[in-house]
Amino acid sequence: MPDSKIQILPDAVINRIAAGEVVERPSSVVKELVENSLDARALSITVELEDSGRSLIRVIDDGAGMSRDDLRLSVERHATSKLHSGSDLFAIGTLGFRGEALPSIASVSHFTIRSRARGSDFGAQISVEGGRISEIQDAGCPPGTEIEVRGLFYNTPARRKFLKSDSTERAHVTETMQRFALANMAVRFQLKHDGRLILNLPAVDELHERVAAVLGR
Fold first, then answer.
1. Predicted TM-score of the model (pTM)
2. Are 134 and 124 in contact (CB under 8 A)?
3. What is the mean pLDDT of residues 60-67?
4. Helix H segments across 40-156?
5. Among 30, 107, 162, 170, which residue carries the largest CB count within 10 Å?
């Protein structure tokens, strides 16, 4: 019999293909990670960029955090805390639910998560390098989650080549953060670029206060 021409792709290749649906540019990464922070009921979210996100995207929140077991599952495809059965698809109340964002981002970057669940005495850390998931290690960190995405598209140079100028990519991230801020008044948002604070939006009670802070009076 002839050899089969159809093959099942390795997980690492599947994740890189899936990343094309989730990650177009640094602002796409910021969107996915901030949505996770909001779903974790964070009240303070800080995004730090280097080289407009090419070298580093770091998202820090004070949300619910993750246990060691949840941390390990978080980088697996289709693993999510937001759906438990098919019927949940008809009553989605979260910003994300597919369980694809983290593994997709991790497949095209040097990826690290540090997290500490509320009520836990210590946190944990896990990294993904080229699809290889590290062992979980203990980590000293405050309650909440910190995610580092370094070298975005380092292993897919064609994708990296199509990124625009630093100012354009930074503008996309800034707009993404402003949109989140307008929709979530009770959350404090900060955006830093190369160590410089470029957005500082404390939580407010009134919509007009947030609109003025984002768009100007």
1. 0.84
2. no
3. 96
4. 68-74, 101-106
5. 107
